[in-house]
Write a structure and sequence with these properties.
The complex is a heterodimer.
Chain A: H1 2-5, H2 8-33, H3 41-59, H4 62-86, H5 91-114, H6 139-151, H7 156-174, H8 176-186, H9 188-193, H10 198-225, H11 236-246, H12 251-271, H13 275-278, H14 282-297
Helix pairs in contact in A: 2-6, 2-7, 2-10, 2-11, 2-12, 3-4, 3-5, 3-10, 3-11, 4-5, 4-10, 7-8, 7-12, 8-10, 11-12, 11-14, 12-14
Chain B: E1 4-13, E2 16-26, E3 31-36, H1 42-49, E4 57-62, E5 65-67, H2 72-77, E6 80-83, H3 95-100, E7 106-107, E8 110-111, H4 113-126, H5 142-155, E9 160-164, H6 172-187, E10 191-196, H7 199-205, E11 208-213, E12 216-221, H8 228-236, E13 254-264, E14 270-280, E15 283-288, H9 295-302, E16 310-315, E17 318-319, H10 325-330, E18 333-336, H11 340-344, H12 351-356, E19 366-367, E20 370-371, H13 373-386, H14 403-416, E21 421-425, H15 433-448, E22 452-457, H16 460-466, E23 469-474, E24 477-483, H17 489-496
Parallel strand pairs in B: 3-10, 3-11, 6-9, 9-10, 15-22, 15-23, 18-21, 21-22
Antiparallel strand pairs in B: 1-2, 1-4, 4-5, 7-8, 11-12, 13-14, 13-16, 16-17, 19-20, 23-24
Classes of the chains: A mainly alpha, B alpha/beta.
């Protein structure tokens, strides 16, 4: 049984499932580091997935779909930026509003454009980057089978996400942008008195998180599933925020935490066929990633301290 | 030609004229003290200069050229630097990161941290401001944090340095160091504006003194042409008694008796390590010490906010070692906490509600758990009058009162209860001379009424003028006891910093530049 569960597939699935979580989590990291809470990531992902799918349906080009998904994320996040930076509304309220808006607008446009609720027609998806074969006997072949299965079987955005995690992490600690970003979420007035615009820094961060959320949506629809469904994201935006916390507000931490969630989800999928053998209700397995989220957010893994000024609207005197 | 000149600067906030046609000049290599009570408009004026606020009318000239300063960036570019009263430092970041923030060396957006560290080291060397460039701000003491703020301004190329209440958070030793730094900065060609409401500091450090009251400049003078009494009169607009004469009061029965008290800090260390003393009726006993030497924990143990590990506390012979805060109030202990915003008041409550706190269960203010508003309001009105709380009504929120009036509310509540023992922790912190005088009078009135007073203060001037006996606390122990007439500021400062004990890192008392803020 164990050899049926622990396969290259399992780890490949973990990487795949982790990808949209990680993108949104890194978006959340960047946004919260600037001092803005972004619980709108759920809705941003949904918008990205929908407009990405719609673009592929209209044009047949998956890459164009990815671009439109990212743009949709940026545009939606601009609403959040306007509300929370310029109008200084409560950031949780603004985020919730966007999440509700996303459900409503995508459902409405489904009806309007495709004449039915539920699921769209299948679309052309992005294919895996590499196509190596793995066969034969022996230890070396077995190792190759694992490497190929786990690491070389993925679609472009999966790889892009690893690059994004490493690059944003490096940038956060080695660039002007990163230093100012880290400062913004801790003590915005200190940033202002150092002659740097708080509003501009925060706008950039929110828009970046929107782009990453849109890309996460594109990964879900254009790479993984190949359709759009209503409420497609199903809480992934919130799990991503938990991953951001678990990852201590760092991009690499967010990525690794997302991997953990991805692994939990991949495992429950793998375990589904055995429910007759071990006599555990399937709901128990479905539950695992969400239980993990609650455990993480409740701080069982050690107390995580976020940016000091996160969620507090900044007002010039 | 002045490096900085303000002409008729006016700034109006809703309902208040914060600056009313203020004119001000700063010459090169000059230290100008901007003196005034809290709320006189000093910080508003300098925030206008630093681009954090914009003036409604008036002109700013730098090197004789009229300029418009709309942001801190523009102020920095004009060579103006400011050290704010509440530090503008990012705690999790390093010294270097904080200093270079906004002007990071490097190419293509990548910070060259090596160059950054080198520049910080150069400036720190040049001005004699030693600092570890890789230390995290959160690990630094307040005095060093302030040093980082000054370095930041110098790194940004400041020629004019504005220091907003720089001594409010410093120990006497740190104040002395700061004054030396300010003088060396002036030697290096800088010009300094020093905002303060402390008279002895002005006399010690300023070349010229500009006094503000109610948003307007009410006078200018030099230290050689005036004295503290004269300055206080200009600042407050009436005669102020800086050092109140005490009437002799005979010591009554022992009210507070603390024996071998051991109290742990939040971190679990022995903050108070076996302290014994008594306070009798009609006596003010002051605990002097540098902040963080166990005073806070001692006070909390006495008023029932922290459980002692061992030892005993007795009030008039009754054991209150393990009394809760509630029973401690009931037996007659009143407490003026050191932090009036966090512990003294509930800022979102109005004055009447704040005055009621602690008495909210007892007649005549409450019956069967229901508060009797009429009684509360009449009590509040009486206290507002008795304690001269300046407010239009008892319904005003705590948060909208000035610091002095907030403290009056705390004192009115605590003394209105007619306690046996008053524990006053830093009761004049952040207050201006007028309010300090009021607090001091209240403390001495308690003493004359035969009550016991335990005063905890970091201000040696205050300790010396109020106390009958002085206990010096260092690292959780009472290292020295003085009768009031045996002590002076220098000797106290010596023992406060560990002198005379086993740890002899402190230097013996020596002649200091004009008392350096610790009083003569």
């Amino acid at each position: 049984m164990l050899s049926d569960v622990i396969t290259p597939d399992l780890f490949a699935a973990a990487l795949r499932i982790a990808t949209p979580l990680a993108l949104a989590a890194i978006g959340g990291t960047i946004c919260e580091r600037s001092g803005i809470v972004n619980i709108a990531l759920e809705g941003i992902m949904l918008f990205g997935a929908f407009f990405g799918t719609a673009t592929v349906l209209a044009t047949g080009s998956p890459w164009l779909g990815v671009i439109v998904a990212v743009l949709a994320g940026v545009i939606v996040s601009a609403i959040h930026a306007t509300a929370s930076i310029n109008l200084r509304t409560d950031q949780v309220v603004s985020g919730t509003a966007i999440n509700l808006l996303a459900l409503g607008v995508t459902g409405f446009l489904m009806e309007l454009w495709y004449g039915h609720p539920g699921t769209t027609e299948p679309i052309r998806t992005l294919q895996p980057v590499f196509h190596f074969t793995a066969s034969g006997e022996g230890v070396l072949n077995e190792i190759w089978r694992w490497i190929n299965g786990v690491f070389l079987s993925h679609t472009p955005i999966v790889y892009a996400t690893i690059v994004i995690a490493l690059a944003t992490h490096w940038a956060m600690y080695h660039t002007r942008w990163g230093l100012r970003l880290r400062a913004l979420g801790e003590h915005p007035r200190a940033v202002e008195t150092a002659g740097v615009s708080v509003a501009r820094g925060r706008w950039v961060a929110v828009l970046m998180s929107g782009a990453l959320g849109g890309l996460a949506g594109a990964n879900l629809s254009i790479e993984q599933v190949g359709v759009f469904q209503e409420n497609f994201t199903n809480g992934r935006g919130f799990i991503a925020l938990a991953a951001n916390i678990f990852g201590r507000w760092t991009p690499i931490g967010s990525y690794l935490a997302s991997l953990l969630f991805g692994f939990a989800d991949a495992l429950q999928i793998k375990l589904q066929p055995f429910r007759d053998v071990v006599d555990i209700p399937p709901q128990f397995f479905y539950m695992l990633p969400y239980v993990l989220t609650v455990v993480v957010v409740a701080g069982v893994m050690g107390r995580a301290i976020g940016p000091a000024a996160v969620g507090v609207p900044y007002e010039k005197e | 030609m002045p490096v900085l000149e303000l002409r008729d600067v006016t700034k109006v906030f809703p309902g208040v004229v914060a600056n009313d046609k203020v004119s001000f000049t700063l010459e090169e290599r000059e230290i100008v003290a901007l003196l005034g009570e809290n709320g006189a408009g000093k910080s508003t004026l300098m925030n206008i200069v630093y681009g954090l606020l914009s003036a409604d009318h008036g002109e700013i000239l730098v090197d004789g050229e009229p300029v418009k300063i709309r942001s801190s960036r523009q102020a920095i570019d004009l060579g103006i630097g400011m050290v704010h009263q509440h530090f503008m430092l990012i705690e999790p970041l390093t010294v270097t990161e904080n200093i270079v923030l906004g002007r990071e060396p490097g190419r293509f957006g990548v910070i060259d941290i090596g160059t950054a560290r080198k520049r910080v080291a150069e400036i720190s060397e040049r001005y004699g401001l030693r600092i570890d460039p890789d230390a995290r701000i959160s690990d630094l003491e307040v005095g060093l944090q302030q040093r980082v703020e000054i370095l930041k301004a110098l790194y940004q190329g400041a020629r004019v340095l504005i220091l907003d209440e720089p001594t409010a958070v410093l120990t006497p030793q740190e104040v002395r160091e700061l004054f030396a730094v300010v003088r060396s900065l002036v030697d290096e060609g800088l010009s300094v504006v020093f905002i303060t409401h402390k008279l002895e500091e002005v006399m010690a450090v300023a070349d010229r003194i500009v006094v503000m009251r109610d948003g307007a400049v009410v006078g200018q003078t030099r230290p050689s042409e005036t004295d503290e009494v004269g300055l206080a009169r200009m600042m407050v607009g009436r005669d102020v008694v800086l050092r109140i004469d005490k009437k002799p009061v005979a010591c009554g029965e022992t009210v507070l008796e603390v024996r071998e008290l051991v109290v742990k800090s939040d971190r679990g260390l022995d903050a108070v390590g076996g302290v014994s003393f008594q306070v009798c009726g009609g006596e003010v006993v002051a605990v002097a010490g540098v902040g963080g030497n166990g005073q806070t924990e001692l006070v909390e143990a006495i008023v029932g906010l922290r459980k002692p590990v061992s030892g005993s506390i007795a009030l008039k012979g009754n054991d209150i070692t393990h009394a809760s805060a509630r029973s401690s109030i009931e037996v007659g202990v009143s407490h003026v906490p050191e932090d009036r915003h966090r512990r003294g008041l509930i800022l979102q409550f109005n004055i009447a509600e704040n005055l009621l706190l602690g008495d909210h269960r007892v007649a005549p203010y409450a019956r069967h758990g229901v508060i009797k508003l009429r009684e509360v309001i009449s009590m509040a009105r009486k206290r507002i009058e008795d304690y001269d709380i300046r407010t239009p009504s008892e319904k005003v929120l705590g948060s909208s009162l000035s610091g002095g009036n907030q403290q009056k509310v705390v004192i009115a509540r605590e003394l209105g209860r007619n306690p046996e023992l008053l524990v006053a922790a830093q009761p004049t912190r952040g207050l201006d001379v007028g309010a300090i005088e009021f607090v001091h009078r209240q403390v001495l009135a308690e003493r004359e009424a035969g009550k016991a007073v335990l005063l905890i203060s970091l201000e040696l001037e205050e300790v010396l003028s109020l106390a009958d006996r002085i206990l010096v606390m260092y690292e959780g122990r009472i290292v020295k006891e003085f009768a009031a007439d045996e002590a002076d500021a220098e000797t106290l400062g010596f023992y406060m910093t560990g002198g005379g004990g086993t740890k002899l890192e402190a230097t013996p008392p020596e002649a200091s530049p004009a008392g350096a803020g610790v009083g003569e």
